User: Fold these one by one.
Assistant:
Number 1:
Amino acid sequence: MPTSPKEQRFLASLQKDILEFFELNDYRSYSINQIHKAFAIRDRKTKELYADLVQKLVIENRLIRQSDGNYRFDNESFQIEGRVDHVNTRFAFVIPDDGSKDVWVATADLMNAKDGDRVRVQARRPSEKKKNDRPEGEVVEILERKSSEIVGVIQVTPHYSFLIPDSKKIYEDIYIPKTETLQANHLDKVIVEVTRWGTPGKKAEGRVIKILGKAGENETEMHSILAEFGLPYEFPEMVELAAEAISTEITKEEIKKRKDLRKILSFTIDPKDAKDFDDAISYQKLANGNTEIGVHIADVSHYVKPGSILDQEAFRRATSVYLVDRVVPMLPEKLSNGLCSLRPHEDKLTFSTLLEFDPNGLIVKEWFGRTLIHSDRRFAYEEAQVLIENQGEEIDAYEPVIKDLNRIAKKLRDYRFKHGSVNFETVEVKFELDENGTPLAVFPRERKDAHKLIEEFMLMANKKVAEYVHELKKTEPRNTMVYRVHEAPDPEKLRVFSAFAKKFGYQVSTEPKQVSQSFNALMENVEGKAEEHVLQSLAVRTMSKARYSTDAVGHFGLAFPFYSHFTSPIRRYPDVMTHRLLQLYLDKGASPERGPLEIQCKHCSDREKLAADAERASVKYKQVEYMSLHEPQIFDGIITGVTEFGIFVEIGETSCEGLVRMVDLNDDYYDLDKENYRIVGKSNGRVFSFGDAVKVKVRDTNLAKRTIDLELIGMKSGGDRFGNNRIRRREGRPANVIPRGKDRRNNIGRKRR
């Protein structure tokens, strides 16, 4: 066998040539002698080498050896690279890098790969006889581990310890020698570095590198969530020192480079507990009767220079992280809460979009550039909303301005929906916490006109910046830009959703040009009805995920052909990239290469997903903690999922989701009817369907796993213990479902654009 890297590369090249020969001639088979002739091989040793390489390709399932001894290309098998999504103890999916169909892999065939690892899979296309068109395969190589650090609870015994991982998708514990515990106490939360990955029949081994604290304490749990997702919770000392060294002075030379807007009325509208203000609105009536509205964004790129230590750390983080009780900022506090925060009564450096609106709310003029502003006032959303809703005598000098801004924002919103923007909003929950972080209350976050006012002007600024850069150069290749892109729904997902909506009597078009209008009509028709929540949730899941890219493929959800992120550079690195590119083009600079920026976009998209996962984990933890304090109470809920192991129920007043386990439904044996999103009792015909309104109480909570077990008390509609929700039997076959109990209306929160 070859030992040097050079020999290994040579043999890999030969094997590749052999495989390409078979692939080009996949319509026929060859004997070993025919292969030798095809490659003009005459000496015995080389013939033996080629025979060995052919046999290796058979073992790797790249070639098939037929009964007559000849070999042919395996058209059904292929290799892909992707990331492991280990959904349960029995199997995982590998999500291909190229966006092709997920590959099903049994846990036994993962080669001990863990969730999030990049792997190479030998896969096989499904036979035509199979209903499921998902390929199946096995991992043949682990290309990259997601992380060598794992967070969990340590269990200490007299002779050794082991880690129970926090992640629900890591199913094996990790052995820790007695000498490698850092003297952690039993049931402490710790971070363990894996020193040897597991092999068949042998556990992974590791060592404790950090003790986070006692499990169950708020500070410990929030830090463990950040660590679980590989997110930092403190800045390196050198980064803090670099931030502190930045001058707070705005020089006369800098003022001369900018448009001075300090005399124009400006203000911010933010959450009442906000600590950083990265956007402000200005308002002035023009002599021609039009209105100029400015969207002013903190000029982070003035302070954070490309390649600096601050820039490197901001890129590494790529986003701020918003946990239930804290913000983990992308930039140090001096920048995020100081220099770049548009606090009232302070001069601030900004990057601005000035939009001139005619009386009908149409934009007739636009301007982009660096500015200097002076915010006159800080509004909380609640304060602005009071002015919007006031119908009596004027109560504030700003009231006419706020109301006019709201009028224009509504016109922008109406125009958006008329031209294909999708009206989807997801539930966001808010917690009231005591001084120890214990949740006292949980409730859906309301979104009123004041929130929508700011959102519309931010959306318009993002859109106009993207359009401006795209149109600067009329021929291909266009100027490189960082876009926020959102593809149309996957046709197969759309077909499945359309079929499901049809069961409730609604038509959802699968025609590309009609999808957005069809979805908006559906959301309008289901408002206030029992099936509102289930159809809205499934519709959101049908949508693609927004991401960053240098390809201008448009934003389906907003119906914008060009859209960027310009308005939050304090908390999103892509916005910093957008500011730099916009200034480059305003200065008549040459367009940079697309490749390096596309890599940065991919990194930012990945970090955004990690941050969102951590945010959801912190919300789930607090929901479970809150429900653990209310176990005896009976709640109204709605079924949000059905599986072979139970029913998922979301509790209306808290938006907490828990599981009613199938084994606890002891009045009958229930079968999963996957096609119709329901389970059906074999003997009694009772039906529990996606969207049914039910009554539940908490059976058990597990803070470590962030799970809630529920007990089903009955159907919300009344009747017997489970209401009258049964299948009518006719000749032993299921008929239609009896109408369900009425659902509650949702208070809807804000969707991340």
Number 2:
Amino acid sequence: MKEHPSPAPVARFRKVDDPHWHWLENRDTPEVAQFLEAVNLASDQWFEPLESLTQTLFDSHLARRELSVTGLATPFDHFVYWSETAADADYPVFWRHPIGECFDHLDVERHGHECLIDLQELSTHSSFLELGDLALSEDEQWMAWTLDTQGNEYFDLYLRHLPNGETIRLERGIGPDLCWAEDNATILFTRYDTTQRPATVWRRHRDHDDAVCLFEESDVEFWVGLDKTRSREWLVIHTASKDTSETHLVPATAPETTPRCFHPRETGVEYGIDHRPGMFYVLHNRGAVHFCLERAEEHALEHWLPMIEHRASTTLEDVDAFSWGLVLTERDHDSAQVHLRLMQLDEHHEVTRDEWLPIAETPCSLALADTPHFRTRQLRLHEESFITPPRWIEFDIDSGERRLLRQQPIYGDLQPGQLACRRVWATSFDGERVPVSVVARADLIDRGPLPTLLYGYGAYGQTLDPWFSISRLELLTRGAAFAVAHVRGGGDRGEPWYLAGKLEHKENSFRDFLAARNVLVEHGLADERHIAAYGASAGGLLVAASVNLDPHAFCAAVLDVPFVDVLRTMENPDLPLTTAEYTEWGNPEEPEAHRRIKGYSPLNNLLPAPWPAVYLQGSWHDSRVPYWEPAKLYARLIELDSARGPVLLRTDMSAGHGGASGRFHAWHDVARQDAFILWALGLSHVMTTSQASSQDA
């Protein structure tokens, strides 16, 4: 196998007067697409010896997975709703059936079944398809939805009278969010400004051609969003920057009403609300960095009364209101574990029951699943871990009974019971303890260092709670370990963990990632010669900056739509996201922020250093991390010619930030990526048990 692809595309397209390859930002110049297509060809040539492995990984992934999938049925007021994806389909079909009639969602020929939307059929008309939102009117007779058919996150709004009405396109190029008022006639949606910032909320009657602007956010650091309380009494307009928020309310039965501000924004104060008749519940961090819960009566919004005080050891993440009380999402800082807390309230809004829901294993993910009914006493919960596939539980709050509704089945030679998970703690450069999760085959995890893939993100307060992955089984069955670095900048240990990895503290994320890598070696879990790193989007920044700090730490790096041109991007307020990101990375117009960002931005710190093998992935229609960021990194690494292995780039010319939209296309992309990882870890020739048995036969 060639160690390096031909440098011909870079040499042929190089411009002497543009050593940083900024010309790649000129999307409309034909030469840009020509360059990317030439690089794709070079990448394909390098991957030719791995084509058999890629196909094997893809086929094995399909063999492990339930391909014909029927989604969990969810009852609303008049109908029960579910989705079905055929074994050979990329996209689901959404169905419903009247509540109270004989119902079998597996038999679509039965009387009463109605097809809401067939995404598989719609996908035949475009190379990309993403459903942004799907919303039903209060009487469930009208359906509105948004679709992106380019991958650039611009959506069109459609409307249909159910079950068989004509599909009407109402709007083009809007945001994804939708919300129906409780009058069965009014739809709220968002529009972008010139930088693709969701900046306005519009109201449109289903029978009228003209939309009315209901709310406009003029501050370029704020994005707007839409919601409706589970009580169905209020339409909620959210507007927020990265560290400040504000909420406006519209009565759901009177959508023509001027929005009412719940509480004026205060710089640095974030708050969110939910509602029970007569009372709002306010989750906020005013004077409470880990958030606290207060309540305000509808007629006295300015008077907040305490319910849950600020605690040093716990971050209060979310509140969901029901007729009987609240479900709170809390995160323990020490264990980095999420919990659900059930709080029943009486007619005076006083607490009559306060308890945490049980957790089946730790660490794990636990969340309130889709539970639309305000008065239900059966909660739907979603659970999964690194070794347990996703499952949906119905929890009866009166009896405490847990009923399994659905669990994702796993087929093949490596079953969840044959996996083991460990959590170790790394000591970072400043003495901070960083949790690191490791999953591997149970028969290997304690038998010596394993080739390891280390994953990280570490931005925006995003948590990396445990998740199960079927494609990951292809790495584990061949003897690799998978590890997650829960670095500062994420939300894994609560709000202080996020604050300690942003702005002037951003370098903590990179140091934590390297510390996570080192502790895996120290504990004998990872083979120091065979550790690959993976990061996507802001995680691509994490990995690339870490490699710049220590090029020898990893044998390979996979950078998926990586944010690597941080300084130049943040200097351009006309790009999507830029102004909204000032409170995450800093505004480079400020000298100190400029110095700081320049100090870690990967493209500003490239030297002729021994980078590991690199596989870069970009998307032509990506509006969050433009295709040119991975393309520039590729070109400059090729020119430096100092990497210890191949430098590869593949740009999907029909996708956006999330990659391919069809599941088979996406799974094939993952198979190619995993083939590269197995090659880098020295495992590309290792067979699974089933492969060996097949060969023996």
Number 3:
Amino acid sequence: MTASRPPGPAAPQPHLPRRLSAAAPGWTARADVVVVGSGIAGLTAALRAHAAGVGSVLVVTKDVLSAGSTQWAQGGIAAALGPGDTPHEHEVDTLVAGAGACDPEAVRALVTEGPAAVRELIALGAVFDQGTDGELSLTREGGHHRDRIAHAGGDATGAEIQRALVAAIEAAPEIEVVHHAHAVDLLLGEPDAEGRRPVAGLTLHVMGEGQRDGVGAVHARAVVLASGGLGQVFSQTTNPAVSTGDGLALALRAGAVVRDLEFVQFHPTVMYLGPDSRGQQPLISEAVRGEGAFLVDDAGERFMLGEHELADLAPRDVVAKAITRRMHATGRPHVWLDARHLGRAFWERRFPTILATCERHGVDPAVDLVPVAPACHYASGGIATDLWGRSSVPGLYATGEVACSGVHGANRLASNSLLEGLVFSRRIAEVLPGDLEGLPAVAPAGARDVPAGLTDPDHRKDLQETMTAQVGVLRTADGLAAATAHLADLAAGGRDDVPAELAAWETTNLVTVAAALTAAATLRQETRGSHWRDDHPTRDDERWSGHVDVTLDDDGAVAVLFRPTPPSDAPASLAPDAPATSPTQPTPEIV
């Protein structure tokens, strides 16, 4: 189908830097593959690539190995592991939650390969909770029609997975790890016959002492981005402080296609800490509702009854929208989660981490109602990839939250994110040996564009407040236009005298990602999944069944394009036994 762009309001787009201002590299290193990120996606990619014999593997982490988003995952990891459950049923739930924006082949790969991937994680050393029969203890979360969420430590699943993966990395000394390293930009070679500039490595800024300190260059044949999400674009998020959209921004600057960035999932039950609270907020896992908790308003009304057949366990976009509507109707900044009937003993056994967090903030969930409100949680869109993690830039791969594999569509199904990191990182490692034969080391080409000035870090709070107010849970044409104009001002205000250091690089990346997200949200004039346009309140499959792609043009202006595709959430037409695409087939064009 020919790509097209439905009519929409035109607004001048921000002009963003095509590379960041940074000091000249003071050191160099070489690797066959560089993995950026140390969560479940990055460490799985590194371990599997090493096992596949790709050569030297270098892992780059912005903080320490355990500092990413994976460790904060509470609910668990979804896979068809229980009696009576099937990958087909998991597939149906995933497609329904994705609201017609999933890639069915990607979903099928996820659900069919997922059970083996989880068992492999257990074999690696991750210890999951078991029932009295010795089998995995499985629970249910929003959007699932089966108990298929495996968990560890009650509500410490991410921490246990991270522990096991870090231990495996530490037991593989051949995999080199560079801690406290910020990925500044990709190094690119000369254009190929199609005008695409292949990856030649990346520049890093290492915040430490020793031989590798300050800005350096790592020459590599392939780079795998597993750098996580963009939560710090907003004032309140469940994401850690390191989630500043760095991978998305450097991929855009390198010419990569970013897809469906408008689909940002706001978790419905994040603990409300007051109007002035900023940054990472405490998550109250959906698994709490899976165990019987429910939402009420100030009058004690269970407002999710009648909203959806699954009531309080409806998909996250449904719950977040219902909470927002109730907040607007009552004029209150939050609603309440009622889990008092679960009892203290149950809380201590099943949700010890959440219990401790609530108590730290003066709330005893076994006695008190818990104040909750939606906050930015997960980016369903990201760097567009094929079924094997390949982006539109030769030699650049993406996996995990930074990628748009096609699995999540317009609204990620609960606990599918950890599974996506496992499955698609394994897939990248499967094709890397063959791909590297056609990706010989190339010399970085000279810089072709002069960096614009960096954004002053003092503007970060202003940026976050604008994005929260205008591009948050509820969006309108006027609000998006105001955000676009403000972002254009921030981008135009980049100054050469801003020091080239981490705070400025992060803020500039946040502006870049915010501009791409706002442009995508402006173009999509409908409500679908986690994208809620109050001025276009219904889903419109006739005009908007497809993807929004964002790139930067040669001048750094944001370019958006809508690409129609057939609807994909028709469970009755699914063919559960259809095979996934073979890795030996040619790479599909990313359009």
